[in-house]
Amino acid sequence: MQGQTPAPEGQVADAVKGNWVDTYAPAWSRPYLRLSRADRPIGTWLLLIPCWWGLALAILAGQDPRWQDLWIIAACGAGAWLMRGAGCTWNDITDRNFDGAVERTRSRPIPSGQVSVKGAAVWMGAQMLVSLAILLSFNQAAIAMGILALLPVAVYPFAKRFTWWPQVFLGLAFNWGAMLAWVAHAGSLGWPPVILYLAGIAWTLFYDTIYAHQDTEDDALIGVKSTARLFGSQSPMWLRRFITATVSLMALAVILAVQPAGSVLALVLALAAPWAMGWHMTWQLRAFDAENNPRLLQLFRLNRDTGLIPLIFFALAILA
């Protein structure tokens, strides 16, 4: 169309328009940054937010914030960016043949020829090495948790080949930080972070089912499974169930963490976190339209705000 600014060369179809990678990054680095989804930051947020949940809940459980927690916050941010990039690179290596057959993903760096498989593997290794250096700054229990996190990351790209519930495996990988950050602060695991982890998995089932509805036609043609295909027209009912599970499990995690040592005010403020998050998810459900791909992508990206909402109430509870 006349007057329309052309897309930058190599831009991925579902990248955020005007993102920093396509606008400011050196040309030689763009294919690798696109491989890490740096042009689509929502995934980093969805990996990072459960880490911050876990740290906040650990502080609430012990009422002992420390200066070290500032490093945990920053390290989780850097680690989430790097490991999300490494995970996406691994996903694109394993899915390179599928991605070339799907309209939304065929512009990704490997199927479009911007990056070779060998180059992608080297890039993945570099990101993992820097992540390891950050992980080694934590206590031994947290280091062990971080190494264990590689298992669901490694399995996830293959899940859609053998199960209709690949979103569960994504949830297992993306919410591991809730337990890792708790352990980095507390030194050991407990029931509250495990239940918070389950709440995060339910949340992932919610937002990634919405996301997967963009690809149901292509997925059916190439034989890729997803909860979106499994649920079909019953997706709103299942999304409502995931909202209920997310809110209930997070509330239980809050009660188990805060009630033994915290004040009544801290408990009330912390319990407002899942309540407010649930309302934001319910608002998304009301706007859900399985046939409207731009709306689906918009709702998926809104889950950054969904996940940040509980942190506001956790912070207030810590200060109470």
The gist of it:
The protein has 320 residues and is mainly α. Helices cover 72% and strands 0% of the residues. The chain has helices at residues 20-23, 30-35, 42-62, 68-94, 96-99, 117-135, 140-148, 150-162, 166-174, 177-186, 191-212, 216-222, 227-231, 235-258, 264-287, 293-301, 303-319.
**Proportion of residues in extended strands:** under 5%
Low-confidence stretches: 1-6
What is the terminal separation in angstroms? 56 Å
For the biggest sheet, the summary is: none
Mean pLDDT: 91
Per DSSP E runs of 2 or more residues, the count of β-strands stands at: 0
Q: What structural category do the secondary elements indicate?
A: mainly alpha
Instruction: Tell the overall outline.
Output: globular
H/E element string? HHHHHHHHHHHHHHHHH
User: How many individual helices?
Assistant: 17
Explained architecture:
The chain has 320 residues and is an all-alpha fold. It contains 17 helices and no strands. The longest helix is centred in the first third of the chain and has 27 residues.
